[in-house]
Write a sequence for this structure.
């Protein structure tokens, strides 16, 4: 998905405070899987239990202030970063190959353009539970991820998938959005979360679900911030929002005005990597487990389950659901 989508993407190498963790091995594995355009932006100081902070590789002075072996490694990764940025721009690569040093402005602007075009995927590192490296990731998202008006036109098709459609990201265009997740809220029930690519959507109106060939009515629109749900009257291009209690809509569906129908590519989900079997003690337990699994499956498209009479096996992309 990372290499095919050509969309701005960041990676975060987590749990570097844990035993046997290795930044170098993870970078090598990521680049082997997804390509050399996955470039480190931060470098860890310390290993495992001594891991204490990260250094911004875009900050030359910060890198040069490091001591010992870490300095040599950080300088190596910084050089990889600059080379990867230069390779995405003819003027920059000419200057780089000519032995000239790229200015800080050229590096920052070059990275912005490369991220926008999906030609570079910044890699960050840290420990989420200890808050190490998280601030650097958030700041980079603000700094480098393009605003909705800066992204390239969205590629879609006619509802039957035969004719390509190029859709401009603008609040002035007809409404178009895509659902990427659903969650079960204990107070309002199922929340459908979607990204608005163009146009706007008012509360207490509705839209057309192309995938299900169905009209859906909505009530309130929410902006989500952790567990907080802020009610808003309207969302527009670039917003991520949620609505409750939709009857037909699920993850991956395209939402739009019925007068201008289009369809976005279905979101490709990774295949499950872990399998387990469950053996309920009683028939009543089995029914309760299947109800819980159904809720998990509706929230996470990578979570697959079924009632296999021989194995009673369920599958998941990770172990959180299991």
């Amino acid at each position: 998905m990372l290499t095919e989508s050509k969309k701005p993407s960041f990676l975060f190498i987590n749990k570097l405070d844990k035993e046997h963790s290795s930044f170098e091995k993870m970078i090598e594995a990521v680049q082997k899987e997804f390509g050399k355009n996955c470039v480190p932006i931060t470098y860890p100081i310390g290993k495992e239990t001594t891991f204490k902070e990260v250094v911004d590789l875009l900050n030359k002075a910060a890198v040069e202030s490091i001591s010992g072996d870490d300095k040599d490694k950080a300088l190596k990764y910084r050089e990889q970063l600059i080379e990867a940025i230069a390779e995405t721009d003819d003027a920059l690569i000419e200057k780089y190959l000519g032995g000239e040093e790229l200015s800080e402005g050229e590096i920052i602007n070059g990275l912005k353009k490369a991220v926008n075009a999906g030609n570079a995927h910044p890699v960050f590192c840290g420990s989420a539970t200890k808050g190490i490296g998280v601030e650097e990731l958030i700041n980079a998202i603000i700094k480098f991820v393009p605003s909705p008006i800066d992204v390239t036109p969205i590629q879609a098709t006619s509802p039957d998938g035969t004719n390509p459609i190029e859709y401009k990201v603008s609040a002035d265009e007809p409404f178009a959005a895509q659902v990427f997740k659903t969650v079960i809220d204990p107070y309002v029930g199922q929340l459908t979360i979607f990204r608005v690519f163009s146009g706007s959507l008012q509360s207490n109106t509705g839209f057309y679900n192309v995938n299900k060939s169905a009209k859906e009515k909505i009530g309130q629109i929410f902006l989500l911030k952790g567990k907080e749900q802020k009610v808003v009257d309207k969302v527009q291009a670039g917003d991520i929002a949620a609505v409750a209690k939709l009857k037909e809509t699920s993850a991956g569906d395209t939402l739009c005005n019925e007068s201008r129908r289009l369809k976005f590519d279905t979101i490709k989900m990774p295949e499950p990597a872990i399998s387990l079997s469950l053996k309920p003690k009683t028939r009543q337990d089995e029914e309760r487990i299947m109800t819980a699994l159904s809720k998990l499956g509706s929230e996470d498209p990578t979570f697959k389950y079924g009632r296999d009479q021989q194995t009673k096996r369920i599958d998941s992309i990770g172990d959180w659901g299991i």
About this structure: Residues 69-86 form the longest helix (18 residues). Residues 154-256 form a domain with the Elongation Factor Tu (Ef-tu); domain 3 fold (CATH 2.40.30.10). The chain has three domains: 2-146, 154-256, 274-316. The CA atoms of residues 216 and 246 lie 7 Å apart.
